[in-house]
Amino acid sequence: MANSRFRPINFLPLVFCFLIVPLTESSSDTNSVYSPCSDAKIQRKDGFSFGIAFAGYSEFLPNSSSNSPQLSPCDRRLSLSSANSQVAVFRPKVDEISLLTINTSNFFPDSYGGYMVAFAGRKYAARSRPTFVANSSHIVTSFTLVLEFKKGTLQNLYWKRFGCALCSGNGAFVCINNQYCAIRTSSCKNRGGNIDCSLGIQLSFSGTDKHDSVFNSWYEVKNLRQYSLFGLYSNLRDSLTSQFNKFF
Ligand SMILES: *[C@@H]1O[C@H](CO)[C@@H](O)[C@H](O)[C@H]1NC(C)=O
Ligand SMILES: *[C@@H]1O[C@H](CO)[C@@H](O)[C@H](O)[C@H]1NC(C)=O
Ligand SMILES: *[C@@H]1O[C@H](CO)[C@@H](O)[C@H](O)[C@H]1NC(C)=O
């Protein structure tokens, strides 16, 4: 069914586009939907495409003055294309804990409004709340995103916060609103410091696939978080911030 309110995302300036290739053989991926602005019904081991848009907080609201509901970045009523925005597209494997990275050596989120929204779907347009990433003085580099499915259709995306326990006592970090650790931008590489302030987004999946099989990765994240999941990604750990190193 054509729905004129929606159209594919490629009108957005897709300057960087990461395709996270599944680590196992692609034959297990039965999902033929590659656009983050189309609806997919997935089963375990499928790839699943979703997008992350960077823009200012108010760019994600159709009417910043009214309290109208937030729209999906796929919805052209938002006119993100004419706004100062960027989109990254990812295709992780469903029900595997993945760590997505966005290299900030040439991309400063604060130049694009400083907030991000994760989104996927068209008729079932799901999108997260905008979450703060960076302003000119601070950047948050560590995120956990939960993708919640019901019978294989994405219902909800949300950012999980784990508080500031892991960053307290480290001088490079600042705790914001008792919710997340931020790094002073002046400590970042290319900005006068020596920390790699690339963004790390840890994904997990909850709910059920189209065969009612239950996703387990969110359960694993909850239980592993106390040891910091970054330990699972030893190859990435050195290139990401040293934020959690003392816990390995
Ligand atoms: C924004 O608000 C105006 C006036 O209330 C309304 O006419 C318009 O449809 C709204 N735009 C969206 C995208 O909801
Ligand atoms: C950036 O955001 C942090 C956290 O909200 C805030 O403490 C700081 O004052 C902001 N900096 C600027 C320049 O707005
Ligand atoms: C980001 O890119 C720079 C330059 O290409 C590279 O030196 C750095 O290691 C990269 N960081 C990550 C986390 O991949």
From TrEMBL:
Highest rank taxon of the organism: Eukaryota
Annotated PANTHER family: DPH3 HOMOLOG-RELATED, EXPP1 PROTEIN
Record has NAD as a keyword: no
UniProt-listed InterPro entries: DPH3/4-like
The keyword Magnesium is annotated on this UniProt entry: no
Protein name per its UniProtKB record: OLC1v1034033C1
Alphabetically ordered keywords of this record: Signal
GO cellular component: cytosol
Biological process according to GO: protein histidyl modification to diphthamide
Signal peptide: 1-26
